[in-house]
Amino acid sequence: MAPRHVEGEITLGLMMRPLKGVIEREIEAGLRNTWRIREVGRRLIQRLLI
Length: 50
Description:
Order of helices and strands: H
Helix content: over 70%
Largest sheet: none
Strand content: under 5%
Shape: rod-shaped
Number of helices: 1
């Protein structure tokens, strides 16, 4: 039988898996939004220069 702290770490690891996915999706969404903001800014500057 595994020691208690090992069982706890395994349980915590399984609980953290969905959270890890949520965090990764939030980071990816943030990076996409940053890129989108840059793209909008670039287009705006291009229109102002024309």
